[in-house]
Amino acid sequence: MRALKAADGRHVRLTAAGRWGGGAGTAALVLGAAGGLRPLFGVGAAAVLACAAAWANARFGRRPGVAHASLPAARFVRGERPLLHCAPAGRAGAATPAIRGTLDDVLPDGVRTLPFAGRGWTAAGPALPRGVWRLGPAVAEYHDPLGLAVTRTRPSPPGAHFTVSPRTPAAVPWVAEAAAAHASGAARLDTDEAFEIHGMRPYTPGDDLRLIDWRGTLRTGAFHVRERRGGGSAPAAVLLDTGAEDGEAFETAVDCAAAVALSVLRLDRPVVLSGLGAAPRLITPAPEAAAGLLDLLARVTPHPGASTTPLARLAAAIPNGALAVLATTRDPALWRPALSALSAHRATVVCLHAVPAGPGASGPRQFAGFRVLRVRSVEDLAGLPAGR
Fold it and tell me: CA–CA separation, 209 vs 224, rounded Å?
């Protein structure tokens, strides 16, 4: 029996078991009637009636579809498994539906589609990849208790868009240490190089005691500290290398870039995000700055084989004294000229080398002027950069 479409948009069809049962029952019914074999006739009649009853129940029974599907929030973190809620289109009957649908990638070059399924009016979503997604149409399927017929309801309208942000830890401790070092006038995390005096200001808790100006303190009767020119105003820089293959290592690199940038914003300092497009993006501390940053990074896509030259040029423009962090999946040696040049400008330079999860070799190779931290997951950022 072919699938039939009811007036309310539902599709009703017999399953393979229903079709075989109906066909065999019809044959038994005919042979039993022709040969006078009552048992065979009875079995055939029972099979035909069972298939007819299953189809009629599927066709005329109360089988509400999905009015709309929804999620509990509009923003999630990569790897989350949200629970989708479906509202029935009408009064639900005794039958329990199987819910099926898709999540559709809405980025300009997105071709990904993720299926979801569940029993009842809720469905467990898949582990969400980073990106911008939309709830696709959802349908309810009702199966006959004997497995003879299936009712598939009309698809629901597409749902709302939602964002899946990179996964970030609560804080990256060494970012705060580096920012404090620059604000107090230290040129590097591990040296006591001289700095250019720009002025003095009152002492605040947390300032480097080496910067106290004792002459000004004795003259005014209050502690004063010296400031380096540009030490606290230069924004930190986060460079994301998108010239990588799509995969877990690239997602880890994006997570690292987000974690470092958010840590800078939490310190009430600006950050420049480079590598996302033609021009760097300056993000200043504001109530919605973190959400805007995560939205930017949620839309990043890899460009395998891209040249390192454009990002290296952006790195060369980083202001003197600024904290610079590069997140990459490629060999840090490729970035040695650019990062070494940054170090010559007295910037604190860290290369976060994202690699696939699993057992690895000994520590990463270190280079003069910058530090390399091998990262298998964003949680590895809690450690200080190698060579500290």
Answer: 10
The HSE-up count of residue 59 (CA atoms within 13 Å, CB side) is 14
- The predicted pLDDT at position 127 comes to 92
pLDDT digits (tens, 9 = 90+) for 43-62: 888 888 888 888 787 777 77
225-236, pLDDT tens digit by residue? 776 544 445 678
Query: Which of these, 111, 127, 178, lies nearest to 371 by C-alpha position?
Result: 178
Going through the chain in order, the beta strands assigned E by DSSP cover 4-5, 11-14, 66-70, 75-77, 83-88, 98-105, 113-119, 122-124, 131-143, 149-152, 161-165, 197-202, 224-228, 236-240, 271-274, 281-283, 323-328, 348-354, 371-375
Q: What is the pLDDT of residue 203?
A: 77
Task: Kindly state the helix (H) or strand (E) to which residue 342 belongs, with its residue range.
Answer: helix 336-344
Instruction: Using a pLDDT cut of 70, give the percent of the chain over it.
Output: 83
β-sheet bridge partners, residue 161: 134
* Exposure of 227 in the CB half-sphere (CA atoms within 13 A): 15
Q: State how far the Cα of 212 lies from the Cα of 226, in Å rounded to an integer.
A: 6
Positions in the chain whose pLDDT score sits under 70: 1-9, 93, 110, 179-199, 205-208, 227-234, 278, 319-322, 344-347, 359-363, 383-388
Q: What is the rounded CA–CA span in Å between residue 10 and residue 139?
A: 10
Q: What is the DSSP letter of 349?
A: E
Beta bridge partners of 25: none
Q: How far apart are CA 308 and CA 300, in angstroms?
A: 17
Dihedral (Cα; 46, 49, 54, 57), 10-degree rounding: -140
